[in-house]
Amino acid sequence: MSDNELKAPDQSRRKFLGAGAAALAGAAVAPGVSLMSVAEAKPLDQAVSDKNRWGMLIDTSRCATGCDACVTACNTENGLHRTEHPKTDAHWIRKVELQNRSTGRRVALPLMCQHCENPPCEDVCPTGASFRRADGIVLVDKHICIGCRYCMMACPYKARSFIHEELHDQVEYAPRGKGTVESCTLCVQRVDEKGERRDPACVEACNAEGHKAMYFGDLKDPNSEISQQLSTYESKEIRTDLALNTGVRYRGI
Amino acid sequence: MKKVTYAEIEGRSPGFYGLLALLGALVLAGLAAAIYMETNGHWVTGMDNEIVWGTPHVFAVFLIVAASGALNVASIGTVFGKSLYKPLGRLSSLLAISLLLGGLVVLVLDLGRPDRLIVAMTTYNFKSIFAWNIFLYTGFMVVTAVYIWMMMERKMNKYYRPAGFVAFVWRLILTTGTGSIFGFLVAREAYNTAIMAPMFIIMSFSFGLAIFILVMMAAYKWTDRPLGDAVIYRLKNLLGVFVASVFFLVAIYHVTNLYITQRHGVEKFILAGDNVYTTLFWVGQILIGTLLPLAILYSKLGRSRTWIGFGAVLVILGGIAQIYVIIIGGQAYPLDIFPGYHVLSSGFADAEAYHAYTPSLPEVVLGIGGMALSMLMVTLGVRVLRFMPTSLADAEVDPHAASQKAA
Lengths: 253, 407
Fold this sequence. Notes:
The complex is a heterodimer. Chain A is α+β, with helices and mostly antiparallel strands. In chain A, 27% of the residues lie in helices and 16% in strands. In chain A, helix 4 packs across helix 8.
């Protein structure tokens, strides 16, 4: 899904918000005061830039066994419904429970597209439908996805799903299509909602449950909470050996 | 060497029309299967989000690999100057184009959006080996068509050697590309190895030649044209060498993996698992596809045409089993997303010991439809153009051997 496509449904509202944000930014900068959320704002006719890199940190020690609030929230936000054929249902995020083979320690964590800096899915995609935005979000342009599924063969995290049947009741900001491949978008519709950028649905739900196991933010902003956490505490990427520099990091595995 | 005379086949017998009708029906059935899968969506197939490439890919890859191998017969004549192979060049090239087209049609019809073929032909990501392959496949057809033209058109005869050389190099690169589709998959333990490219090349030699031998024997028998032992024995000996070479590369692939501790899991899964892939490997690929054909081709049985034909059929069956094990077995073994951890649950099949896959009827019918399309093209090709020498009798292709035999 291209950036433009995602913005298409509510251009006017967004233009208004963008103008508002710009005005607010001007007002804020004028007296020499800088508000972080506003400073991040970009006019809507401007492409995303590499000034940001959106990412996530999962604190597995806070991820509760048996809780799947993040999964439910993702499905609701992005219009993923269970079908009559559960074997081929799409999963953008899943709750994984693990046990260390040698120590027996148990860990629970949510797993989704890791938004790699060097995504294998992007490398193998013949048409360029799999792509990485300048701000680090890995997406599928569903207008040029031919449904070859090579990206699914290449993804080390099994983060992608192929749409096996006709879909109904889609949400307008997360269009999906039979015969194409899709995965977690980091709720790009929320990320692009400038001026009032909201956390992805999974993070919001985790916080609402009081677990606070998921942090979302700008990895390039040294003052963001996620950067502070990452610079203070140990964390790692899944499949570090592949050197993909993932945008999603985990603590406690 | 005598001048070789080529002629179209007569193509008026009930047998000829019967063959056309049979192949045509299979092609239509394949098309119907594809339409059924596309209109319903892929949930009607055996596929899911774990096994994303199913039976159609097995058939498609088999045909594409065999296509480049089928051209070898022509290359041996043109590039390596072996006179016995020269009369076979045209048929070899026709078979190569036909097999490739059959495979590509299956591949395209199994896409999620086959209607976007034009997108695949116009929008490229050149880092993708898939994108490269689109050029390699279409280019192969053009290069081979030009090669056929140079062989057929007397005025262009002088250029046929360079054309044959280009086709030979192109086919090697093409199969390198096909093998690398798997070789470049960093995350999966069954793939991610450079040996995929050379292994696919040798596989192509073997599968392509087996199909060529069968097509040639059938075509000459059904048209009552003479086919001497010289050609057949030479080709069956070569097939034996190729079958043994495939076995060698397969052995290196597995021994290397067995040396790497990280890959013991996938090796155990394929070589000693309680699953269909272990059976397909040992019974299909090794016994039926390797040991039995070698025993047939290099024993006294190898003097009989029936047995040679049977040996070629076994090589083909073993080849399909091998590609099934590579493509589907390689996906059935779950990704090791969390090395050092055991997955207890995930709601997305991560905790499965291995992913199950059962081919559905439409997938098999589509694959067979692709094979039938290849054979239909060959049948029509030899009917309308001069692909087949009127005689491949020993005296025509190898006078030296023929005179020795007479003496």
